[in-house]
From TrEMBL:
Its EC number is 3.5.3.8. Signal peptide: none annotated. Keywords: Histidine metabolism, Hydrolase, Manganese, Metal-binding. CDD domains: Formimidoylglutamase. GO terms for biological process: L-histidine catabolic process to glutamate and formamide; L-histidine catabolic process to glutamate and formate; putrescine biosynthetic process from arginine, via agmatine. GO terms for molecular function: agmatinase activity; formimidoylglutamase activity; manganese ion binding. Belongs to the arginase family. Pfam families: Arginase (PF00491). Binds 2 manganese ions per subunit. It comes from Hafnia alvei FB1. The keyword Methyltransferase does not apply. Its cofactor is Mn(2+). Catalyzes the conversion of N-formimidoyl-L-glutamate to L-glutamate and formamide. This is Formimidoylglutamase.
Length: 317
């Protein structure tokens, strides 16, 4: 049975430099405790049933606490004192669809209270739960999804998997007469069948292929992402860590042969975070059992650190 658990005390630990200076803080010393009201809440979705159903390599259910542990010892700067750890939904034997519904309800509740959500998955089935909660919390707003991912995740399937979340969200929008705005950055044409590309065209998905993301100027990419965001009142950012090259992110089910390196990813993510329209962000697909000397965990934690550092919570739109 799935259930919410507060994060164990031994997860948020690190080096204590307070003897040097009261400003020598790290995130484990600034993170808010469970239910402490702050503008951003960190949640875990400990599930990789979607990866299993998608015939991937399981292990991502262990990611939320692994990423917290790596984030804990990073230096605390501006923005890092605005986050509370809200615990993790541990899916266990609960059917994936039921767990996604429970998680989306929690996301909706937080957003209705004016709290932004940062989520550590879990497989990319996390995105349907997180995204649905965002849509339901903002019924009268135009929502846009920005996905950094090697895969379009628009698969047709009789059940939810890690490869179906954005098709599921598109179906939700169709059923509720809402526009579906989806931009995928870093997708690999070699990793997406023609059927998926055709489905993306049908849904009017914007795609920046990995080869283009590497060769176009950052200014050009910023302009495209900015133009996409201008169409949206609420932005949901989801980062499938397999968008990174395998040498930077070995700990995923499907490491990328090309990928979008972190030195190009971070400026793009940072610009998105500077918009007050960003209400939800997640990092998914990290698999500690496949990582090499925690290289992937360090990379993922650095991305999460940047999101929290640059997140402009602004005023509620």
């Amino acid at each position: 049975m799935s259930h919410w658990q507060p994060t164990a005390n031994d997860v948020w630990q690190g080096r204590n430099d307070l003897a040097e200076s009261p400003e020598a803080l790290r995130l484990f010393q600034t993170i808010g405790q469970h239910n402490e009201p702050r503008p951003i809440v960190l949640l875990g979705f400990a599930c990789d049933e979607g990866v299993k159903r998608n015939h991937g390599r399981t292990g991502a259910a262990a990611a939320p606490d692994a990423l917290r542990k790596m984030l804990a010892n990073l230096a605390a700067h501006a923005g890092h004192d605005r986050v509370t750890d809200g615990g993790t939904l541990r899916v266990g034997d609960t059917p994936l669809e039921e767990a996604q519904a429970l998680f989306s309800q929690k996301i909706t509740q937080y957003h209705q209270q004016g709290v932004r959500t940062l989520v550590f998955g879990g497989g990319h089935e996390t995105a349907f739960a997180h995204g649905l909660g965002i849509y339901q919390a903002h019924p009268d707003k135009t929502v846009g999804i920005i996905n950094f991912d090697a895969h379009l995740d628009l698969r047709r399937n009789d059940v939810a998997t890690s490869g179906t979340p954005f098709r599921q969200l598109a179906h939700y929008c169709e059923q509720n007469q809402r526009p579906f705005h989806y931009l995928c950055v870093g997708a690999s044409l070699a990793a997406n069948t023609q059927a998926l590309v055709t489905e993306a065209e049908r849904l009017h998905v914007e795609i920046v292929w990995d080869t283009d993301a590497l060769t176009r100027s950052l200014d050009d990419l910023h302009r495209q992402i900015g133009a996409f965001m201008e169409k949206c009142e609420i932005v949901y950012l989801t980062i499938d860590l397999d968008v990174l090259p395998a040498w930077q992110m070995p700990g995923v089910s499907a490491p990328a042969a090309v990928g979008l390196p972190i030195e190009r990813l971070l400026p793009l993510v940072g610009a998105i975070c500077e918009s007050p329209s960003l209400w939800g962000a997640d990092l998914v697909e990290y698999n500690p059992s496949l990582d090499i000397q925690q290289f992937g965990a360090r990379t993922a934690a650095r991305i999460a650190w940047q999101i929290l550092h640059q997140w402009n919570i602004g005023d509620c739109p």
